[in-house]
Amino acid sequence: MIKLPAIVTFANQKGGVGKTTLCVLFAHYLVSKGLRVHVVDCDPQRSILRRRSADVERYGDGNIPFDVSRGKTSTKGELAELLKAIFSDSTHDVTLLDTPGNVITGLSQYLISNAHMLVVPFHYDKTTLSSTSTFIICLDHLKRSMGARMKSRLYLVPNLHDSRVGTRKELQLWDEARETYSRYGTVTPKVPRVADMERFSTVMNFDQQAKYVTPAFDKLYLDIFDTLDPYRKTESQEAEQKTPDTPTLVEVAHELAKMAPMNDAVSIDTETEKETTEKTTTDENNE
Q: What are phi and psi of 108, to 5 degrees?
């Protein structure tokens, strides 16, 4: 179990692996578990900040699930201030860092080495595997040089995986890569390549996306809290608990079964009354 507040850094020197998308979706996942989340956009492209601005314009700011801010990381002093602010922040449980897609530098290593969890998305293709492997080797060298000072746990997420793609030799290579990566960190379940994963929102949590990333995120969450139970109940979960349970079909059937003898009695009495009436009418006619 990781002591809160925790830092989770999303990184890979290879661009286009879905790093930013997974960062935002993991923020939604943590919020659904009752955690107070802060996303710091350290990427010069500011994709998350721009998306938040567009989302607020579209959906309004009445129901913002997590905070988003800009991370200044140009100098060592800015990095030190950023990390100091994160570790002294009592208003958030988890801070997610979206880092630029480049090799490990003297500055970026501070974001990596101070993280509790380092999440590295990758694709199963030759180009991405080559770049990701180089990145993992650099991480391993950094860990060896820093020793116990670097406590980051490494998680590798096979993202945007298309099971229809790959020759027999390529599929064998994917399996070998997974086995090799597992020696350096934890390889999570695969996140499939589907149309629903091509966009993200910093305000709306889309159910169709959640179902695809949940298996991988469950692994990350379990390693943080040693359980999949919510950290704290959300407002919607508390409301559901206060709402009376709807009777199940079995319970309804049981109640109907108890009422059945009464209905039968009414039915018998009705038939008896009908027969008596018909007999009385017949007798009157005969007279």
A: -65, -25
The letter for the amino acid at 84 is: K
Measured CA to CA, the distance from residue 6 to residue 245 in angstroms comes to: 36
Residue 271 identity (one-letter amino acid): E
Q: Where are the alpha helices (DSSP H) in the chain?
A: 19-32, 47-59, 76-87, 108-113, 126-146, 168-181, 207-225, 235-242, 249-286
Rounded Cα gap, residues 191 and 158, in angstroms = 6
- Alpha-carbon distances, residue 122 vs 115, 135, 158, 184 (angstroms): 19, 11, 5, 14
**CA 48/CA 56 separation, integer angstroms:** 12
Q: Alpha carbon 165 to chain centroid distance?
A: 25
Report which DSSP code applies to 7: E
Backbone phi, psi, residue 138, to 5°: -65, -40
d(CA 254, CA 28): 41
What distance in Å separates the CA atoms of residue 96 and residue 18, rounded to the nearest whole number? Answer: 15
Distance set, CA 101 to CA 132, 157, 165, 202 (Å):
11, 16, 25, 20
> Per-residue pLDDT tens for 48-98?
999 999 999 999 999 999 999 999 888 889 999 999 999 999 999 999 999
Place of tokens 């994917």: 174
| pLDDT tens digits along 151-170 | 899 999 999 888 888 788 98
Separation between Cα atoms, residue 234 and residue 63, nearest integer Å: 13
d(CA 276, CA 273): 5
For 238-281, write each residue's pLDDT tens digit.
Answer: 666 555 555 555 555 566 666 655 444 444 454 554 455 555 55
